[in-house]
Each structure stands twice: as structure tokens, then as C-alpha cells.
Amino acid sequence: MTAEAPLAPVLPYGRLTTVTVHFDDLDALGLLHNARYPLLVERAWTELWHDNGVRFEGDWTAAGDACNAVRELRVTYDAPVTRPGTYGVHLWLDRLGTTGLTYGFRFCSADGAVTYARGSRVLVRLDATTLRPAPWSEAFRDAARELLRPEV
Predict the structure, then answer these.
(1) What is the pLDDT of residues 119-140, one digit of tens each?
(2) Which residues are CB-neighbours of 75 under 8 A, at least 6 positions away?
(3) What whole-number distance in Å separates Cα of residue 104 and Cα of residue 68?
(4) Which helix (H) or strand (E) holds 103?
(5) Phi, psi of 79 (to 5 degrees)
(6) The pairing of beta strand 115-125 with beta strand 100-109
(7) What is residue 6's predicted lDDT score, i.e. its pLDDT?
(8) Mean per-residue pLDDT for 13-23?
(9) I want to staple 99 with a disulfide (CB 3.0 to 4.6 A). Which of 52, 95, 126, 133 is the partner?
(10) Exposure string (b/e) for 26-61, b if CB count within 10 Å is 16 or more?
(11) pTM exceeding the 0.70 threshold for the entire prediction
């Protein structure tokens, strides 16, 4: 008899990735520190985009779509994370514009069933020389479209 891998949860949109909460991510009360949620979400996004060929390797001009800046970040905390371990981050895009995008996220249990925090972040693609808004590449836009949340 062989053990089968657990099935990944079916999400109606976006992707669910895993992150690890370590003991030193917890605050003095034993709760995941509020500043760690955005950091862990950022790591999940970085891994997702890295898998799609978007990465920074030391040269901002060559970085292309990885040359971007945060315009806005919102986080709502729903329930405390009280122990180290493997958790999930549900990622999606709410809007994909010419030079900006808005993504949504849920910090959740590894199976996606329990939500601990949720939020959104607005990013602006920048020209590496002028630091002014610049259009996303077509390759980036193609990958991003797969993450768009359907309009309700």
C-alpha cells in the first residue's frame, strides 16, 4: 500500500502557496507579529513571480517587471496565528492596469480553510532609469491574467 499525496484545495481563483512561520516570527505574547504577515505574503508573491521568470538579480534595468514599488498596503487581521508551522497564502489579482495592479491575499491555514488575515496591495511598475510608471510587459500581463479574480 502506498501513501497518496494530499489533494491541493480547489480555489475558484488565484493560487494557494505555502509559507513557514518560525518560532522567532512570534511576538512576546506568542502570536505571529503583525509585521510578519506582509513579509510572508511578499515571500509567497516573490516565489510565484520567480516561477514565471520575473526576478531581480542585481540589475534594475534588466529586472524589467520586477522593478516596481508599493503604493498602498492594507491588512485586516481576523484570527491570531499562535504557533510555528506551515501555513497557506492565497494570492490573486483584483486589477491589472497598464502600469499598476492590485493584488489580494489571504494568510490562511495550509488547506485554505481558515483565514488569519486578508488584505490588498497596489504595485506600480517603474522605469529603472526615471523611476516613473512604466507599462508591464506582455509576458508579465499574460502570467498575471491567470491570477485575476473573476468579477462578482
Answers:
(1) 999 999 999 999 999 999 999 9
(2) 34, 37, 38, 117, 118, 119
(3) 17
(4) strand 100-109
(5) -155, 145
(6) antiparallel
(7) 53
(8) 96
(9) 133
(10) beeeeebeeebbbebbbebbeebbeeeebebeeeee
(11) yes
Distance CA 100, CA 20 (A): 29
Q: What are phi and psi of 75, to 5 degrees?
A: -135, 135
Q: How many CA atoms lie within 13 A of 68 on its CB side?
A: 26
- In 3D space, the residue among 46, 144, 53 whose CA is nearest the CA of residue 93 turns out to be 144
| Three-state secondary structure call for residue 39 | helix
* In the block, residue with C-alpha cell 490562511: 108
- Confidence bin at 55 (pLDDT 50/70/90): confident
Place of cell 505571529: 32
Q: Whole-angstrom Cα distance, residue 71 to residue 88?
A: 24
Q: Which three cell numbers stand for residue 90?
A: 492565497
